[in-house]
Amino acid sequence: MNLLDVDGLSRSELERLLDLAVEMRERRGDTTLRGETVALAFYEASTRTRVSFELAAKALGATTVDLGVAGSSVGKGESLVDTLLTLQRTGVTIIVLRHAASGAPYLAARATAARIVNAGDGQHAHPTQALADALTLREHLGGLDGRKIAIVGDIAHSRVARSNLQALTALGASVWLAGPPAFVRGFDAWPGATVAPLDEALRDADAVMTLRIQLEREAGGGIPSLREYVASWGLTEERMGLANRGAPILHPGPTNEGLELSADLASSDRSLIGRQVENGVPVRMAVLALVAGAA
Ligand code: NCD
Hints:
With 295 residues, the protein is α/β, with parallel strands linked by helices. The protein has twelve helices and nine strands.
């Protein structure tokens, strides 16, 4: 199978994947993916997602290859489909794809026989990040049922926000969204989402997630200036005072401290940002095992 989005996963499938991720932490010298060749095809920049997929594949005994888009024949004009077919013909069985075009993994899944894992497509979806975040929250809060989770900032351009919204609501949480009008427009129509002023979204929240402004997706047009954004939407310890006592702050990374959140908050006791990164490896082990039919 492929993992293109979280929207196709039921609550019990999501929970099973999170349970499998927990189990994966204990695995040593595992050979679940022996015989599989995992290609990392990242057409957009990535640190944590790319590294954790590579380590996850290796931890389960797969061979890995990094396409290294910048130094590949992509620069000679080769199309996405031709590039992925080339990978398949050289023996790649699983392609982890990140691409600026929303929907690229769906095209890839139709065009090649390799299994496709979506590592982030445009502003559409980032399923493994949502799984890592859901695991982080489930462990910290003891469960997501009936929890109030606030997501603040550039929701409109964020594949992380969309996938988290779907995964967290499927797991029983209510998700509150706050940001400048251009960053939340239309999200009232999303099942399980409530768009609200910042104070209301933060009030009594069990956890708060903030996001980088996706300037590469032309998000800059949605705000008057970065300075005004910080003044109105930047998260600080003081603003977090509205949330439940000790409510954690999450961020998928990379953070821009001093913009979407203060440096103090990012390094405070509330911060689960490091834990989100740590959970990325076992979650991706679980996903790779699932798509390989070995879960
Ligand atoms: C995010 C992404 O690329 O979607 N990063 C990540 O994978 N953890 C978020 C971002 O780039 O802002």
